[in-house]
Amino acid sequence: MKYSALLLCALFTGCADLPDQNTSMPNQVNQTDTLVNKTLSLGSSNKYYGDELIKNVNHYAKWLTQDLFSNIDFPNNNDVYVVSNFALLDSSLDKTSHFGRQMTEAMIHEVHNTGFSVIDLKASGFIRMTEEGDVFYQSEDYLELSPATDASHIITGTLAKHQGGYIVNAKVVLLANKALVSTAQIFVPHEVVDAVMLEEKEIKEKPKKTTMQLKTYSK
After folding, report:
1. How many folded domains does the chain comprise?
2. Number of Cβ atoms within 10 Å of the Cβ of 173
3. Cβ neighbours of residue 140 closer than 8 Å, sequence gap 6 or more
4. N or C end of the chain, less CB within 10 A?
5. pLDDT of 149-205, one tens digit each?
6. Domain range spanning residue 95?
7. Where residue 171 sits, what CATH number does that domain have?
């Protein structure tokens, strides 16, 4: 009888220590609702202020470039490279994306880091100034660009949209005879692709320029 009483006391004590599910559940729901509401309240423009990625597009460009040059048996330090834009595979190979452009810029940096000469196709050869006073040396107008006649190799490739991200296919081609020198592939997760965002362009109406006629004074 004594042991039965002790057992009942232990059971009641254990039940008293258990959390009240009716009181704890609203707290969990409220925390979840708060997180959902916070996520929904963030617009696409606020993603810029999100947490930094552990790996970004520059890391994948570095790994891709390393694979490309590791497949070249006898690299020549006198070779001159050009890096073209990576074209969307489901297009007519004349279209790319903002991610593709950044991938190209990152690979130009990585090829240069390997010690090879790289020709910047967007270099205009002259400095131009805009009406706002900004100074630029690069251009996207093909009439302002010089042909890369000194280049010996070109790095080109395609972007294939895949479930979960993009497959980037890169290749090194010898310009003299179009021989395939090296190839490499890499898979870039969608969060890395989506992290390369377009700049938000604010459309502002510029004031119309008024032409003032000069007054003529007679003596």
Report:
1. 1
2. 18
3. 122
4. C
5. 788 999 999 999 999 999 999 999 999 999 999 999 999 999 999 988 887 654 344
6. 57-195
7. 3.40.50.10610
